[in-house]
Amino acid sequence: MNIEELQSKFRGHLIQQGDPDFDQERKVWNGYIDKHPALIAQCSGTADVIDAVSFARKNDIEVSVRGGGHNVAGSAVCDGGMVIDLSKMHGIHVDASRKLARVQGGATWGDLDRETQVFGLAAPGGVVSTTGVAGLTLGGGLGWLRKKHGLSCDNLRSVEIVTADGTLLTASQNENEDLFWALRGGGGNFGIVTSFEFNLHEVGPTVMMCAVMYAIENAEKVLSTWMNFMTSSPDEISSQALFWAIPDIEDFPEDARGKHVIAITAMYVGDSDEGEKAFEKIRNIDTPVIDLSGKIPYTAAQSMFDPFFPKHERNYYFKSQDLASLNKETRGAIIEGAKKRPVDSMLLAIWHYGGKMNRIGSKDSAFGSRDTTFLLSVDSIWDDPGDSEEVISWSRDFLDTMKRFSGDGMYVNFSGFGEEGEDLVQLAYGNNYDRLSEIKTKYDPDNFFHYNQNIKPCS
Ligand code: FAD
User: Of 311, 351, 387, 446, which sees the most CB atoms within 10 A?
Assistant: First the structure.
Protein backbone atom coordinates (compact mmCIF):
# COMPACT_ATOMS: atom_id res chain seq x y z
CA MET A 1 0.00 0.00 0.00
CA ASN A 2 1.53 3.31 -1.05
CA ILE A 3 0.64 5.72 1.74
CA GLU A 4 2.75 8.72 0.70
CA GLU A 5 -0.21 10.74 -0.48
CA LEU A 6 -2.02 10.27 2.83
CA GLN A 7 1.16 10.72 4.88
CA SER A 8 1.85 14.17 3.41
CA LYS A 9 -1.11 15.71 5.24
CA PHE A 10 -2.01 13.28 8.04
CA ARG A 11 -1.42 14.73 11.52
CA GLY A 12 -2.01 11.50 13.43
CA HIS A 13 0.02 8.32 13.30
CA LEU A 14 0.12 5.88 10.37
CA ILE A 15 1.21 2.42 11.45
CA GLN A 16 2.06 -0.30 8.95
CA GLN A 17 3.13 -3.92 9.13
CA GLY A 18 6.78 -3.98 10.22
CA ASP A 19 6.52 -0.84 12.40
CA PRO A 20 7.60 -1.48 16.01
CA ASP A 21 4.17 -0.69 17.48
CA PHE A 22 2.17 -2.52 14.79
CA ASP A 23 1.61 -5.73 16.76
CA GLN A 24 0.45 -3.85 19.83
CA GLU A 25 -1.84 -1.49 17.94
CA ARG A 26 -3.50 -4.14 15.76
CA LYS A 27 -4.75 -6.07 18.80
CA VAL A 28 -8.47 -6.17 19.40
CA TRP A 29 -9.87 -6.11 22.90
CA ASN A 30 -11.11 -9.72 22.59
CA GLY A 31 -8.04 -11.96 23.04
CA TYR A 32 -9.74 -14.68 20.96
CA ILE A 33 -9.54 -12.64 17.77
CA ASP A 34 -6.35 -12.04 15.82
CA LYS A 35 -6.40 -9.73 12.79
CA HIS A 36 -3.72 -8.36 10.48
CA PRO A 37 -4.62 -5.08 8.81
CA ALA A 38 -2.25 -3.50 6.31
CA LEU A 39 -2.51 -0.02 7.84
CA ILE A 40 -3.75 1.58 11.04
CA ALA A 41 -4.60 5.24 10.58
CA GLN A 42 -4.65 6.72 14.08
CA CYS A 43 -6.49 9.96 13.47
CA SER A 44 -5.83 13.13 15.44
CA GLY A 45 -8.97 14.96 14.33
CA THR A 46 -11.80 15.26 11.84
CA ALA A 47 -9.49 16.26 8.98
CA ASP A 48 -7.54 13.02 9.36
CA VAL A 49 -10.79 11.03 9.32
CA ILE A 50 -11.93 12.76 6.12
CA ASP A 51 -8.58 12.16 4.44
CA ALA A 52 -8.45 8.53 5.57
CA VAL A 53 -11.93 7.89 4.11
CA SER A 54 -11.04 9.65 0.84
CA PHE A 55 -7.74 7.75 0.55
CA ALA A 56 -9.47 4.41 1.12
CA ARG A 57 -12.17 5.25 -1.43
CA LYS A 58 -9.70 6.34 -4.05
CA ASN A 59 -7.52 3.26 -3.63
CA ASP A 60 -10.36 0.80 -3.11
CA ILE A 61 -9.15 -0.25 0.33
CA GLU A 62 -11.37 -2.14 2.77
CA VAL A 63 -11.85 -0.22 6.05
CA SER A 64 -12.89 -0.93 9.61
CA VAL A 65 -13.56 1.74 12.24
CA ARG A 66 -12.25 1.67 15.81
CA GLY A 67 -13.82 3.66 18.63
CA GLY A 68 -13.25 2.05 22.04
CA GLY A 69 -12.23 -1.24 20.37
CA HIS A 70 -14.52 -3.37 22.59
CA ASN A 71 -16.67 -5.06 20.02
CA VAL A 72 -16.56 -8.78 20.84
CA ALA A 73 -16.69 -9.73 17.16
CA GLY A 74 -13.49 -7.72 16.65
CA SER A 75 -15.16 -5.52 14.03
CA ALA A 76 -12.86 -2.60 14.90
CA VAL A 77 -10.00 -4.29 13.03
CA CYS A 78 -10.07 -5.77 9.53
CA ASP A 79 -7.74 -8.20 7.82
CA GLY A 80 -5.63 -6.75 5.03
CA GLY A 81 -7.27 -3.32 4.88
CA MET A 82 -7.12 -0.07 6.84
CA VAL A 83 -8.27 0.53 10.39
CA ILE A 84 -9.55 4.08 10.77
CA ASP A 85 -8.72 4.36 14.43
CA LEU A 86 -10.26 7.13 16.54
CA SER A 87 -8.86 5.92 19.86
CA LYS A 88 -6.61 9.00 20.19
CA MET A 89 -9.61 11.28 19.61
CA HIS A 90 -11.02 11.23 23.14
CA GLY A 91 -11.45 14.91 23.93
CA ILE A 92 -14.53 15.97 25.87
CA HIS A 93 -16.08 19.36 26.50
CA VAL A 94 -18.78 19.74 29.14
CA ASP A 95 -21.09 22.74 29.22
CA ALA A 96 -22.33 22.27 32.78
CA SER A 97 -24.76 25.19 32.75
CA ARG A 98 -26.58 23.82 29.68
CA LYS A 99 -26.09 20.19 30.76
CA LEU A 100 -24.43 19.22 27.48
CA ALA A 101 -21.27 17.30 26.58
CA ARG A 102 -19.46 17.18 23.25
CA VAL A 103 -17.50 13.90 23.03
CA GLN A 104 -15.00 12.83 20.36
CA GLY A 105 -15.56 9.50 18.59
CA GLY A 106 -12.78 7.55 20.34
CA ALA A 107 -13.62 8.38 23.98
CA THR A 108 -14.53 5.71 26.50
CA TRP A 109 -17.27 5.90 29.13
CA GLY A 110 -14.53 6.27 31.77
CA ASP A 111 -13.29 9.40 29.95
CA LEU A 112 -16.80 10.86 29.80
CA ASP A 113 -17.82 10.02 33.38
CA ARG A 114 -14.61 11.62 34.66
CA GLU A 115 -15.42 14.93 32.98
CA THR A 116 -19.16 15.01 33.70
CA GLN A 117 -19.10 13.82 37.32
CA VAL A 118 -16.97 16.80 38.35
CA PHE A 119 -20.23 18.71 37.83
CA GLY A 120 -22.49 15.97 39.26
CA LEU A 121 -23.72 15.16 35.75
CA ALA A 122 -23.78 12.02 33.59
CA ALA A 123 -24.86 10.73 30.20
CA PRO A 124 -26.36 7.22 30.25
CA GLY A 125 -23.56 4.80 29.32
CA GLY A 126 -22.79 1.10 29.79
CA VAL A 127 -21.70 -0.86 32.87
CA VAL A 128 -17.98 -1.23 32.01
CA SER A 129 -16.01 2.02 31.87
CA THR A 130 -13.44 0.92 29.29
CA THR A 131 -16.13 0.45 26.60
CA GLY A 132 -16.18 3.00 23.78
CA VAL A 133 -18.84 5.71 23.73
CA ALA A 134 -19.11 5.34 19.94
CA GLY A 135 -19.91 1.67 19.33
CA LEU A 136 -22.07 1.40 22.45
CA THR A 137 -24.15 4.52 21.67
CA LEU A 138 -24.57 3.77 17.97
CA GLY A 139 -25.96 0.31 18.79
CA GLY A 140 -28.28 1.63 21.56
CA GLY A 141 -26.46 1.69 24.88
CA LEU A 142 -27.74 -0.20 27.93
CA GLY A 143 -26.58 0.94 31.33
CA TRP A 144 -27.56 1.77 34.87
CA LEU A 145 -29.53 4.89 33.86
CA ARG A 146 -31.64 3.22 31.16
CA LYS A 147 -34.96 3.25 33.02
CA LYS A 148 -34.59 6.75 34.41
CA HIS A 149 -33.05 8.47 31.38
CA GLY A 150 -33.21 6.01 28.47
CA LEU A 151 -30.53 4.41 26.33
CA SER A 152 -27.30 6.21 25.47
CA CYS A 153 -28.63 6.88 21.96
CA ASP A 154 -31.82 8.38 23.41
CA ASN A 155 -29.72 11.11 24.96
CA LEU A 156 -28.02 12.24 21.77
CA ARG A 157 -28.67 15.81 20.76
CA SER A 158 -26.55 15.77 17.61
CA VAL A 159 -23.61 14.04 15.95
CA GLU A 160 -20.93 15.06 13.49
CA ILE A 161 -20.26 12.33 10.99
CA VAL A 162 -17.96 11.73 8.02
CA THR A 163 -19.96 9.86 5.41
CA ALA A 164 -18.72 7.48 2.71
CA ASP A 165 -18.00 10.29 0.22
CA GLY A 166 -15.77 12.07 2.75
CA THR A 167 -18.33 14.78 3.61
CA LEU A 168 -18.74 16.02 7.17
CA LEU A 169 -22.42 16.25 8.12
CA THR A 170 -24.29 17.22 11.24
CA ALA A 171 -27.26 15.05 12.15
CA SER A 172 -29.86 16.14 14.70
CA GLN A 173 -33.64 16.49 15.09
CA ASN A 174 -33.43 19.51 12.75
CA GLU A 175 -30.71 18.55 10.29
CA ASN A 176 -30.41 15.34 8.29
CA GLU A 177 -33.19 13.96 10.50
CA ASP A 178 -33.30 10.61 8.67
CA LEU A 179 -29.62 10.05 9.39
CA PHE A 180 -30.09 11.08 13.04
CA TRP A 181 -32.93 8.55 13.33
CA ALA A 182 -30.70 5.80 11.87
CA LEU A 183 -27.71 6.63 14.06
CA ARG A 184 -29.75 6.06 17.22
CA GLY A 185 -29.38 2.26 17.18
CA GLY A 186 -28.26 1.56 13.60
CA GLY A 187 -24.56 1.06 14.47
CA GLY A 188 -21.54 2.07 12.40
CA ASN A 189 -23.31 1.65 9.06
CA PHE A 190 -23.67 5.28 8.01
CA GLY A 191 -20.25 6.84 8.47
CA ILE A 192 -17.62 7.70 11.06
CA VAL A 193 -18.88 9.76 13.96
CA THR A 194 -16.19 12.26 14.91
CA SER A 195 -18.20 13.74 17.77
CA PHE A 196 -21.38 13.15 19.75
CA GLU A 197 -23.36 15.79 21.62
CA PHE A 198 -25.16 14.38 24.66
CA ASN A 199 -27.81 15.73 27.01
CA LEU A 200 -26.61 15.28 30.59
CA HIS A 201 -28.53 14.57 33.80
CA GLU A 202 -27.88 15.16 37.47
CA VAL A 203 -26.59 11.86 38.86
CA GLY A 204 -24.67 11.08 42.08
CA PRO A 205 -21.96 11.82 42.97
CA THR A 206 -22.98 9.02 45.41
CA VAL A 207 -25.39 6.28 44.36
CA MET A 208 -26.83 3.25 46.10
CA MET A 209 -25.78 0.00 44.45
CA CYS A 210 -27.22 -3.42 45.10
CA ALA A 211 -24.76 -6.31 44.61
CA VAL A 212 -26.14 -9.27 46.50
CA MET A 213 -25.29 -12.88 45.66
CA TYR A 214 -27.35 -15.95 46.55
CA ALA A 215 -26.52 -19.64 46.17
CA ILE A 216 -27.55 -20.99 42.78
CA GLU A 217 -29.59 -23.66 44.57
CA ASN A 218 -32.07 -20.87 45.49
CA ALA A 219 -32.16 -19.45 41.98
CA GLU A 220 -35.88 -20.00 41.27
CA LYS A 221 -36.94 -18.18 44.43
CA VAL A 222 -34.45 -15.35 43.80
CA LEU A 223 -35.27 -14.97 40.11
CA SER A 224 -39.06 -14.98 40.58
CA THR A 225 -38.83 -12.45 43.43
CA TRP A 226 -36.49 -10.25 41.36
CA MET A 227 -38.80 -10.46 38.33
CA ASN A 228 -41.84 -9.37 40.37
CA PHE A 229 -39.82 -6.66 42.09
CA MET A 230 -38.46 -5.26 38.82
CA THR A 231 -41.71 -5.28 36.89
CA SER A 232 -43.26 -2.98 39.49
CA SER A 233 -40.10 -0.99 40.31
CA PRO A 234 -39.73 2.77 39.80
CA ASP A 235 -37.66 4.23 36.95
CA GLU A 236 -34.89 4.96 39.47
CA ILE A 237 -33.97 1.24 39.54
CA SER A 238 -32.17 -0.46 36.65
CA SER A 239 -31.00 -4.00 37.29
CA GLN A 240 -29.52 -7.22 35.95
CA ALA A 241 -29.63 -10.75 37.38
CA LEU A 242 -26.38 -12.61 36.72
CA PHE A 243 -25.45 -16.27 36.98
CA TRP A 244 -21.81 -16.30 37.97
CA ALA A 245 -19.14 -18.15 39.92
CA ILE A 246 -17.32 -16.02 42.49
CA PRO A 247 -13.70 -15.80 41.31
CA ASP A 248 -10.85 -17.14 43.39
CA ILE A 249 -9.29 -13.74 44.10
CA GLU A 250 -8.53 -11.83 47.27
CA ASP A 251 -11.31 -9.27 46.76
CA PHE A 252 -13.83 -11.91 47.83
CA PRO A 253 -14.05 -13.72 51.22
CA GLU A 254 -12.23 -17.05 51.10
CA ASP A 255 -15.28 -19.16 51.93
CA ALA A 256 -17.29 -17.58 49.09
CA ARG A 257 -14.71 -18.11 46.33
CA GLY A 258 -15.65 -20.62 43.65
CA LYS A 259 -19.34 -20.71 44.71
CA HIS A 260 -21.94 -20.63 41.95
CA VAL A 261 -24.37 -17.78 42.57
CA ILE A 262 -27.16 -15.72 41.19
CA ALA A 263 -26.19 -12.09 41.70
CA ILE A 264 -28.70 -9.25 41.73
CA THR A 265 -27.01 -6.04 40.68
CA ALA A 266 -28.90 -2.76 40.56
CA MET A 267 -28.44 1.00 40.79
CA TYR A 268 -30.84 3.45 42.38
CA VAL A 269 -30.63 6.70 40.44
CA GLY A 270 -31.79 9.18 43.07
CA ASP A 271 -31.41 9.81 46.78
CA SER A 272 -29.13 7.06 48.10
CA ASP A 273 -31.00 6.68 51.44
CA GLU A 274 -34.18 6.05 49.51
CA GLY A 275 -32.24 3.61 47.34
CA GLU A 276 -31.08 1.71 50.40
CA LYS A 277 -34.69 1.33 51.55
CA ALA A 278 -35.86 0.38 48.06
CA PHE A 279 -33.33 -2.47 47.83
CA GLU A 280 -34.26 -4.06 51.18
CA LYS A 281 -36.59 -6.56 49.54
CA ILE A 282 -34.12 -7.88 46.99
CA ARG A 283 -31.29 -7.96 49.53
CA ASN A 284 -33.31 -10.21 51.84
CA ILE A 285 -34.71 -12.87 49.52
CA ASP A 286 -32.66 -15.52 51.30
CA THR A 287 -29.39 -15.72 53.21
CA PRO A 288 -26.84 -14.24 50.81
CA VAL A 289 -23.49 -15.84 50.05
CA ILE A 290 -22.17 -12.27 50.08
CA ASP A 291 -23.78 -8.85 49.96
CA LEU A 292 -21.48 -6.15 48.59
CA SER A 293 -24.27 -3.55 48.34
CA GLY A 294 -23.60 -0.01 49.51
CA LYS A 295 -23.40 3.69 48.75
CA ILE A 296 -20.51 4.38 46.41
CA PRO A 297 -19.37 7.13 44.02
CA TYR A 298 -21.12 6.92 40.65
CA THR A 299 -17.74 6.61 38.91
CA ALA A 300 -16.89 3.59 41.11
CA ALA A 301 -20.23 1.98 40.19
CA GLN A 302 -19.50 2.61 36.52
CA SER A 303 -16.17 0.77 36.77
CA MET A 304 -16.98 -1.95 39.31
CA PHE A 305 -17.05 -4.70 36.65
CA ASP A 306 -13.89 -3.49 34.86
CA PRO A 307 -11.44 -5.89 36.57
CA PHE A 308 -13.30 -8.91 35.16
CA PHE A 309 -12.99 -7.70 31.56
CA PRO A 310 -9.30 -6.96 30.92
CA LYS A 311 -8.31 -6.15 27.36
CA HIS A 312 -6.31 -8.48 25.13
CA GLU A 313 -6.02 -11.16 27.84
CA ARG A 314 -9.26 -13.11 28.06
CA ASN A 315 -11.46 -14.66 25.37
CA TYR A 316 -15.02 -13.45 24.91
CA TYR A 317 -18.22 -14.39 23.09
CA PHE A 318 -21.34 -12.35 24.02
CA LYS A 319 -24.65 -13.13 22.41
CA SER A 320 -28.21 -12.20 23.30
CA GLN A 321 -31.88 -12.63 22.59
CA ASP A 322 -35.01 -10.88 23.78
CA LEU A 323 -37.26 -12.97 26.02
CA ALA A 324 -41.01 -13.15 25.41
CA SER A 325 -41.46 -13.35 29.18
CA LEU A 326 -39.64 -14.56 32.27
CA ASN A 327 -42.31 -17.07 33.24
CA LYS A 328 -41.61 -20.19 35.30
CA GLU A 329 -40.70 -22.35 32.31
CA THR A 330 -38.28 -19.74 30.96
CA ARG A 331 -36.70 -19.25 34.36
CA GLY A 332 -36.34 -23.01 34.72
CA ALA A 333 -34.56 -23.31 31.36
CA ILE A 334 -32.16 -20.46 32.22
CA ILE A 335 -31.36 -21.92 35.64
CA GLU A 336 -30.82 -25.36 34.11
CA GLY A 337 -28.48 -23.80 31.52
CA ALA A 338 -26.62 -21.81 34.17
CA LYS A 339 -25.88 -25.01 36.09
CA LYS A 340 -24.42 -26.65 32.97
CA ARG A 341 -22.03 -23.86 31.91
CA PRO A 342 -18.86 -25.65 30.78
CA VAL A 343 -16.54 -23.03 32.32
CA ASP A 344 -17.11 -21.21 35.63
CA SER A 345 -16.07 -17.81 34.28
CA MET A 346 -19.02 -17.76 31.85
CA LEU A 347 -21.90 -15.46 32.77
CA LEU A 348 -25.58 -15.61 31.97
CA ALA A 349 -27.14 -12.17 32.35
CA ILE A 350 -30.79 -11.16 32.38
CA TRP A 351 -31.25 -7.44 31.73
CA HIS A 352 -34.50 -5.83 32.80
CA TYR A 353 -35.71 -3.18 30.34
CA GLY A 354 -38.54 -0.72 30.99
CA GLY A 355 -38.99 2.85 32.16
CA LYS A 356 -37.88 5.65 29.84
CA MET A 357 -36.13 3.34 27.34
CA ASN A 358 -39.42 1.54 26.68
CA ARG A 359 -41.59 4.66 26.64
CA ILE A 360 -39.83 5.87 23.49
CA GLY A 361 -41.80 4.66 20.47
CA SER A 362 -40.40 1.70 18.54
CA LYS A 363 -40.39 3.81 15.37
CA ASP A 364 -38.90 6.95 16.96
CA SER A 365 -35.33 5.68 16.57
CA ALA A 366 -33.65 2.72 14.89
CA PHE A 367 -33.20 0.73 18.14
CA GLY A 368 -35.27 -2.40 17.64
CA SER A 369 -36.43 -3.71 21.02
CA ARG A 370 -38.57 -1.04 22.70
CA ASP A 371 -41.31 -3.52 23.64
CA THR A 372 -39.03 -6.02 25.35
CA THR A 373 -39.03 -6.45 29.14
CA PHE A 374 -36.16 -8.91 29.55
CA LEU A 375 -33.03 -9.61 27.50
CA LEU A 376 -31.03 -12.80 27.98
CA SER A 377 -27.32 -12.43 27.28
CA VAL A 378 -24.78 -15.23 27.30
CA ASP A 379 -21.53 -13.51 28.25
CA SER A 380 -18.96 -16.20 27.71
CA ILE A 381 -15.53 -15.42 29.12
CA TRP A 382 -12.75 -17.98 29.26
CA ASP A 383 -8.99 -18.03 29.76
CA ASP A 384 -7.75 -21.32 28.34
CA PRO A 385 -7.68 -21.24 24.51
CA GLY A 386 -8.21 -25.01 24.66
CA ASP A 387 -11.76 -24.33 25.92
CA SER A 388 -12.70 -22.09 22.98
CA GLU A 389 -14.53 -24.59 20.84
CA GLU A 390 -16.55 -26.04 23.70
CA VAL A 391 -17.49 -22.64 25.15
CA ILE A 392 -18.54 -21.11 21.84
CA SER A 393 -20.56 -24.09 20.70
CA TRP A 394 -22.18 -24.44 24.14
CA SER A 395 -23.18 -20.75 24.02
CA ARG A 396 -24.71 -21.14 20.55
CA ASP A 397 -26.51 -24.39 21.44
CA PHE A 398 -27.89 -22.93 24.66
CA LEU A 399 -29.30 -19.90 22.86
CA ASP A 400 -30.78 -22.22 20.24
CA THR A 401 -32.61 -24.15 22.95
CA MET A 402 -33.84 -20.82 24.38
CA LYS A 403 -35.36 -19.79 21.04
CA ARG A 404 -38.70 -21.26 22.11
CA PHE A 405 -38.85 -18.58 24.83
CA SER A 406 -37.56 -15.74 22.74
CA GLY A 407 -39.21 -12.48 21.83
CA ASP A 408 -38.90 -10.87 18.43
CA GLY A 409 -35.40 -9.46 18.63
CA MET A 410 -31.95 -9.31 20.12
CA TYR A 411 -29.42 -6.62 21.06
CA VAL A 412 -27.10 -5.78 18.19
CA ASN A 413 -24.23 -4.91 20.54
CA PHE A 414 -24.30 -8.45 21.97
CA SER A 415 -24.35 -10.39 18.72
CA GLY A 416 -21.67 -13.06 19.02
CA PHE A 417 -19.35 -12.94 16.03
CA GLY A 418 -22.22 -11.83 13.78
CA GLU A 419 -22.14 -15.30 12.24
CA GLU A 420 -25.76 -15.19 11.06
CA GLY A 421 -25.01 -12.14 8.90
CA GLU A 422 -28.02 -10.30 7.55
CA ASP A 423 -30.54 -12.59 9.29
CA LEU A 424 -29.20 -11.48 12.65
CA VAL A 425 -29.25 -7.81 11.71
CA GLN A 426 -32.82 -8.09 10.45
CA LEU A 427 -33.81 -9.80 13.70
CA ALA A 428 -32.19 -7.02 15.73
CA TYR A 429 -33.98 -4.20 13.89
CA GLY A 430 -37.29 -5.90 13.15
CA ASN A 431 -39.74 -3.49 11.52
CA ASN A 432 -37.11 -0.74 11.36
CA TYR A 433 -34.84 -2.70 9.02
CA ASP A 434 -36.38 -1.55 5.73
CA ARG A 435 -36.17 2.12 6.65
CA LEU A 436 -32.55 1.62 7.78
CA SER A 437 -31.78 0.02 4.45
CA GLU A 438 -33.25 3.02 2.59
CA ILE A 439 -31.19 5.46 4.66
CA LYS A 440 -28.11 3.30 4.07
CA THR A 441 -28.78 3.55 0.33
CA LYS A 442 -28.93 7.34 0.57
CA TYR A 443 -25.74 7.85 2.62
CA ASP A 444 -23.63 4.79 1.73
CA PRO A 445 -24.97 3.27 -1.51
CA ASP A 446 -21.80 1.21 -2.16
CA ASN A 447 -21.77 -0.24 1.37
CA PHE A 448 -18.31 1.23 2.00
CA PHE A 449 -18.92 0.86 5.76
CA HIS A 450 -19.67 -2.86 5.86
CA TYR A 451 -17.25 -4.12 8.49
CA ASN A 452 -19.98 -4.08 11.17
CA GLN A 453 -23.41 -5.55 11.91
CA ASN A 454 -24.19 -4.73 8.34
CA ILE A 455 -27.36 -3.12 7.06
CA LYS A 456 -27.37 -3.66 3.32
CA PRO A 457 -28.30 -0.87 0.92
CA CYS A 458 -31.45 -1.61 -1.11
CA SER A 459 -30.37 -3.61 -4.12
P1 FAD B 1 -15.35 -0.81 18.64
O2 FAD B 1 -14.94 -2.23 18.56
O3 FAD B 1 -14.34 0.23 18.56
O4 FAD B 1 -16.46 -0.49 17.57
C5 FAD B 1 -17.49 -1.37 17.29
C6 FAD B 1 -18.15 -0.95 16.01
O7 FAD B 1 -18.78 0.31 16.21
C8 FAD B 1 -17.18 -0.73 14.88
O9 FAD B 1 -16.98 -1.93 14.17
C10 FAD B 1 -17.87 0.31 14.06
O11 FAD B 1 -18.80 -0.30 13.20
C12 FAD B 1 -18.59 1.12 15.08
N13 FAD B 1 -17.86 2.32 15.50
C14 FAD B 1 -16.94 2.45 16.46
N15 FAD B 1 -16.55 3.72 16.55
C16 FAD B 1 -17.23 4.41 15.62
C17 FAD B 1 -17.30 5.77 15.25
N18 FAD B 1 -16.58 6.71 15.86
N19 FAD B 1 -18.13 6.12 14.24
C20 FAD B 1 -18.89 5.19 13.61
N21 FAD B 1 -18.87 3.89 13.93
C22 FAD B 1 -18.06 3.51 14.94
N23 FAD B 1 -23.12 -2.64 25.60
C24 FAD B 1 -24.09 -2.00 26.27
O25 FAD B 1 -25.03 -1.50 25.68
N26 FAD B 1 -24.05 -1.89 27.64
C27 FAD B 1 -23.04 -2.39 28.37
O28 FAD B 1 -23.03 -2.26 29.58
C29 FAD B 1 -22.00 -3.07 27.69
N30 FAD B 1 -20.97 -3.60 28.36
C31 FAD B 1 -19.97 -4.21 27.69
C32 FAD B 1 -18.92 -4.71 28.41
C33 FAD B 1 -17.89 -5.34 27.76
C34 FAD B 1 -16.76 -5.89 28.56
C35 FAD B 1 -17.93 -5.48 26.35
C36 FAD B 1 -16.86 -6.18 25.64
C37 FAD B 1 -18.97 -4.98 25.63
C38 FAD B 1 -20.01 -4.33 26.29
N39 FAD B 1 -21.09 -3.82 25.60
C40 FAD B 1 -22.08 -3.17 26.27
C41 FAD B 1 -21.19 -3.98 24.14
C42 FAD B 1 -20.66 -2.75 23.45
O43 FAD B 1 -21.70 -1.81 23.37
C44 FAD B 1 -20.17 -3.07 22.03
O45 FAD B 1 -19.12 -4.00 22.13
C46 FAD B 1 -19.71 -1.84 21.28
O47 FAD B 1 -19.52 -2.19 19.93
C48 FAD B 1 -18.43 -1.29 21.84
O49 FAD B 1 -18.13 -0.06 21.26
P50 FAD B 1 -16.59 0.36 21.02
O51 FAD B 1 -16.57 1.71 20.46
O52 FAD B 1 -15.82 0.09 22.27
O53 FAD B 1 -16.19 -0.76 20.00
Answer: 351
